[in-house]
Amino acid sequence: MAFVLSSRSLDITVEAETDAEVDVSGLAIPFGDRYLLRPGQYEVSATAPGYHPLTTEVTVGDADNQRTTLVLAPLPGLLSIDSSPAGAELLLDGESIGKTPLLELPVEAGVHQLEITSPRYFAQSREIEITGRNQAQQLSFALLPAWASYSIDSVPQGADILIDGEVVGQTPATVELLQGERQLQLSRAAYTTWDTALTVTAGMDDTLGTIELEPAAGILSLNSDPAGANVTMDGEFQGQTPLQLTIEPGLKHRIALSKPGYDRRSETIELAAAQTEERTVVLKARKGDVKFRISPASAELRVNGRAMGKGSRTLELPAIAHRIEVSLPGYASQIQTVTPRPGLLQQVSITLQTENEARLARNKPELETALGQTLVLFNPQESGMADFSMGASRREAGRRANEVMHPVSLRRMFYLQTTEVTNAQFRAYQADHKSGQIEGNSLNRNDQPAVALSWQQAASFCNWLSKREGLPAFYRENQGVITGFNPSSTGYRLPTEAEWAWAARTFNGSLLKFPWGSAFPPPATAENYADNTSAYVTGRILNGYKDGHVVSAPVGSYQPNHRGLYDMGGNVAEWVHDVYTIPSADGTTVTDPLGAQTGDNYVIRGASWSHSRIGELRLSYRDYGAGGRDDVGFRVARYADE
């Protein structure tokens, strides 16, 4: 009675398709699906046919009526699968489970994806539900063929049938072709391979009929001695030896070989179907005599790289072009081409120059750039003034502190542009460049000098022009910024300050003070300066002077200087190559000075249309900067080959 009064009711429900048995540990009095239990922990077990046994713990509390549900997991089902044809590959949920026939494979209950595949058949995919609980389930599949039958015959018969490059039989035959795009070929010895593309639809059989095979061409491997002969067959050019020719079988063909300097050869060829043959035709050389007159007599003569002796001699050579080279240490070699003519004696005279003579001869007096700019060659050593002084005396009127007198020496030959770079020329490099205008006066016309550009832009233009003409860049450039220069380069660059001063000032053993001489003021239209018409633009002018232009003039509008260079002392001032410094007065001579690799400011030389003072018009006047100005342009230069 005490147990009954202190116990609680527990309703145990088991979810299963079959009858279940329940067992509760400890003292438990069953009443149908209910049990009387005192509060506490109990172990409850449930079993049912077709299900996994379940054991769990249940807590009985103080409530009078309590409930718990036990869910049993079903055992796997037993799946059997057969197919027609047998041997099909089975994949369950993407994993292989074997091939048909498959017998009683345990599969967990639930929904699964089944795929069945077999070569040459269409794959099938199906969603299946497995009951489980050890129940057997049987599935059957009938796979549909993925091919069509094609009947093929040929004349002659016995040709190999190839589908997508694989042999599947010989004609006559009926072959099964998989659905899709297929390449069919018929191949038989001594006949040309026949091929066609087919679009095959499964189940739609077809007959291709009888294919007539064509006899295969013969193959002639043709060589000549020497090689490189032109070959014609039946009058049509085929190529040069060594050559493989395709010969139509059963017919005679005319083969002709020709090569400059050799007699023509003709032969008749006839090959059977698929026959291969190799022939070598020896060509007879036609020769002529060449008399070589060579100076100095110790120079060596080579013909096509082969040594033929030293000095003058007469050689009999094949009547083709020959590479002639004459060389001697200390002299520049000469190379030319000679073609002998049979029956006619040719004479070739070759006189070697010393390396220095040859170097000078290679440098043309004038060059024209890809933009049409003219550059003149200068050799300071021939002028008698390769050694001269830059700067100005302290006593000279207008002299500035940066014009320190110092000696320089120019030994390298160089080219200098006769005019300043124009807007049109600079816009070939930078299409959107604008030189601007002042008080309605344009600086932007095509034939005016390009201004409003920095030293960096001028140097980059030089590199661009070098690249355009295949010359090595003079300036080292990193992401569009000039970072130094290569002094040995012959690419385009800005004139060095020493070159500019030499070209502008040295004259008949003396140094010019002004472009026109030594007296001030300048004669009429000597150069483009700030004349009477420029007052409202510049604010200061050269009184009484008229040059016909308010701002910059078209380049070359005034007379060139004594070296044929225009606007060296006027029109626009000019960027030069050198980093700006104040020269040392220690009297040390510097040869071909180029200055520092980099710096903050660069030298500007020459006067411009905005200048009028005596100090500015002197050829020794020096200015400096880095950014663009409306009165500063540039001209290009480059070293001559050495």
Structural write-up:
This is PEGA domain-containing protein. Residues 78-143, 147-203, 218-284, 295-355 form the PEGA domain. It comes from Halioglobus maricola. Residues 388-638 form the Sulfatase-modifying factor enzyme-like domain. InterPro entries: CTDL_fold (IPR016187), PEGA (IPR013229), SUMF_dom (IPR005532), SUMF_sf (IPR042095). 8% of the residues lie in helices and 43% in strands. With 642 residues, it is mainly β. Among the domains are: 2-71, Immunoglobulin-like; 287-357, Carboxypeptidase-like, regulatory domain (Immunoglobulin-like); 366-639, paralog of FGE (formylglycine-generating enzyme), CATH 3.90.1580.10. A four-stranded mixed sheet has the order 3-4-1-7. A four-stranded antiparallel sheet has the order 10-9-12-13, with no helix packed on it. The chain has a four-stranded antiparallel sheet with strand order 17-16-19-20, with no helix packed on it. A hairpin with a 6-residue loop joins strand 26 and strand 27 (265-269).
Short descriptors:
Immunoglobulin-like; 8 helices; CTDL_fold; PEGA; PEGA domain-containing protein; mainly beta; 642 residues; paralog of FGE (formylglycine-generating enzyme); 4-stranded antiparallel beta sheet; SUMF_sf
